[in-house]
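Course assignment 3, question 2. Fill in each field.
Student: A.L.
Task: Predict the tertiary structure for the chain below.
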Amino acid sequence: MASRVPLLVLLIAVTCLSQFYRVSNSVIAPELVRDLDLSARQLGWAGSAFFFALFAVQVPVGMWFDRFGARRTVAALSIVAMAGALWIAVSTTAFDLIGGRAIVGVGCAASFMSVVFLCSRWFPPARLATVLSWVFAASNIGTLAAATPLAWVAATVGWRMGFAGLAAVTVLVAVCFYAFVRDRPPEAPAPPTKKENLSEIMKGLVEVWMTPGLGPVLAMHFFAYATMLTVLGVWGGPYLYDVHKLDAVARGNVLLVMGVAQILGILAYGPMDRLLRSRKKVVLGGAALSTALLAVLALLPQPPLWLAVSLLSAFCFACAFGTVIVAQGRALFPDRLAGRGVTTVNMAQCLGLAVLPAGMGYVVEAFGANDMAYRIAFAALGLGLVLGAAVYLRSRDSATAHS
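Answer field:
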């Protein structure tokens, strides 16, 4: 286990950075709107640009994983993320912000799937969901850092300096990842492989897409994490500002609570597939509870702040079941297709993350960025979870043993 500690620490570090980048717009959204003269629609696209970029490069990332390994892929792309962070730091227009976030999205495209790719090799299958829950829960230190700490940085030295500092941290993590991470444990040396030509690469991709049971998993994965992050990472801050009139630090404090709730949810869902011997039951239960909480947020006019915060935090806890879907998706593919398989599953999540925040931006702008606008948006997000779960009902369960 000792040899796995550096791996886990650096996987947490690289996913912390990705989490920070993805949710950083939420707490400083009013400041971005002020400084860059953004509309609600442009703010929504700035939130989605990161995820459109993630989606666009998932296929090549999967091929790079299988050909070059996660170590070299993550380290190289992290340098791209650094460049995007610097662009954001000097941005003066909506185009700069959206473009910078897209570049950062490319740079973070391998981060989360490297966790699945590497942990599936370093840990036994029965423990995969639990280990993933540890890493993904700890990665939310990045989410927490993008709440009150980022609000404090923005209020003291400005959000631009915050992103400049983050660029330096990104380079440091990239160097350490390359230096200390290995693609396989020492007791499991890589099997002999031959370099694939273009025809064989495409054949592998077709094999991945023809995998039985993939479609329902993709449908649920499109909505699950994307719904939660649309609220926590993009529109939670604007909602607290537009409806409850909270300043930056107060918004950061609420988002911090929501982020902690998500971490606790990830940890709670992690071992459930072994306890229930079913991943499908865990996912459907989480989707049902999340939908119910969104329905309450949609039906309650102008809830008091304490109730709104309680409901938002409970929602972040309940909607943290995406890790279980990831483990279920990884179980569909053999090791030789692991890179292309897990990135194909991640494409659904990335597409959801690209579509839902931008879609919510259109709703909020159309209805005037008021209480009713956000209630309609919450209802739309809940409907999406229902649609995803309806398709997911046809999925094949992947039960896991207690040990």
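Instructor remarks: Residues 9-183+204-392 form a domain with the Growth Hormone; Chain: A; fold (CATH 1.20.1250.20). The first helix runs from residue 5 to 27.
Grade: pending
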